[in-house]
Amino acid sequence: MIDFELGDALVALQHRVRAFVDAEVIPREPEVTKDPGALEGVRRELQAKARAAGLFLPTGSKALGGLGLDWREIAVVLEEAGRSLLGPQALHASAPDEGNIHMLEKIANPAQHRRYLEPLARGEVRSSFAMTEPMPGAGADPKLLRTTAQRRGSGWVIDGEKWFITGFEGAAFTIVLAKAPEGPSMFLVEVGTRGLDQLRMIPTLDHQTPGGHCQIRFSQCEVPGEALLGEAGKGFDYAQLRLVPARLTHCMRWLGVAVRSLEIASRYAVQRTSFGHTLSEHQSVQNFVADSQIEIHAARLMIWHAAWLLDRGEQARNESSMAKVFVAETVNKVIDRAVQICGGLGISDDTQLSTFYKEARPFRIYDGPSEVHRGAIARRALRRGAPR
After folding, report:
1. pLDDT by residue (tens digit) across 71-129?
2. Domain architecture of the chain: domains with CATH
3. Of the four listed, 64, 84, 184, 361, which is most buried by Cβ atoms within 10 Å?
4. In this structure, are residues 219 and 195 in contact, taking their beta carbons and an 8 Å threshold?
5. Angle between helix 235-271 and 317-342 (nearest 10)
């Protein structure tokens, strides 16, 4: 049975993270909203404060200098951190670095640990994960992979184009998925390697991701043999090793945004009067608040269940897919209701709601669109012949 009791130590950590976000992180939000170019500097300052507060790298093992938490504990911490878009970045628990750290710790060899993983875990460098390609290449369907990796002497030559590569600008290295003779494989490629070029920064709806979303090209990009990550031909297996927990940590972080949105709307609703009553006395507003509270609670339980399965050593693919769909749609609905409750204030930059609205919409697309996950969930259910 899942134990819903958090325990004194985890409750204390939860309160520390909330206090840190309230005191150190949220006050920096207007600065980044006004000037997204300030994000990198603010992120580094907040990481230094998180390290001093003993909150740095909550998703990392103690061997890497992290807090050594299990997935259930991570869920509690990341929800609190996620109350600000800057919170997970401050704690060094945001994508794509968080997922890359998890994967590298599992499959990188000792030399790769020293060269790539350890500086990344310390927050000295950033990274990216290059899988998605322009049409007709890999996207929601990874089997459409077109980027190739061919052996040349003791090394490899990579050719292909990738886009929507989050965090590439300013990253020290990227992990690229390419089709080798043995099958899909992963390679560690340092930014600045000859033949790896950034074509453009793609203009997108969201603006609060370090390094943005880039389109890049590999043109006869030569890398040494030691750039191969793990074994050739196991790239899809490694992608699942990364994507299942990374999908879940996205849910954990974004749930915090939903919680904060409801907090903002609720405070406004009990203060603002309309037609002789506070907004909180109007039934339509009460319905908005109740529906959001119900869905947040359900989302949290789905996350905790999937985290519990991961802690038991199970893959939790189906459960993480269900959580991804439900949480992504819940977060967008909760933010939308909060904007509606706050009216004109909700679409201004006087609160974070308008920023949340823009930044959250892509969550229904990345790490697998809701429609793709629904298809996978349905196929699994139909193979079983009946719902569990």
Report:
1. 999 999 999 999 999 999 999 999 999 999 999 999 999 999 999 999 999 999 999 99
2. 8-101 (1.10.540.10), 127-229 (2.40.110.10), 236-384 (1.20.140.10)
3. 84
4. yes
5. 30
For the chain, what's the residue count?
A: 388
- Does pLDDT of 385 surpass 90? no
Cα dist. 136→139, 148, 168, 191 in Å?
9, 14, 22, 25
CA distance 272 to 280: 8
Are the C-beta atoms of residues 293 and 283 closer than 8 Å to each other?
no
Which residue do the tokens 């800057």 mark? 86
Q: What pTM was estimated for this model as a whole?
A: 0.95
3-state secondary structure 9-61: HHHHHHHHHHHHHHHHHHHHHHHHHHCHHHHHHHHHHHHHHHHHCCCCCCCCC
Q: Are 193 and 223 in contact (CB under 8 A)?
A: yes
In terms of DSSP bridges, do strands 127-130 and 173-180 run parallel, antiparallel, or are they unpaired?
A: parallel
Asked if residue 143 has pLDDT above 80, the reply is yes
User: Token digits for 14?
Assistant: 């939860």
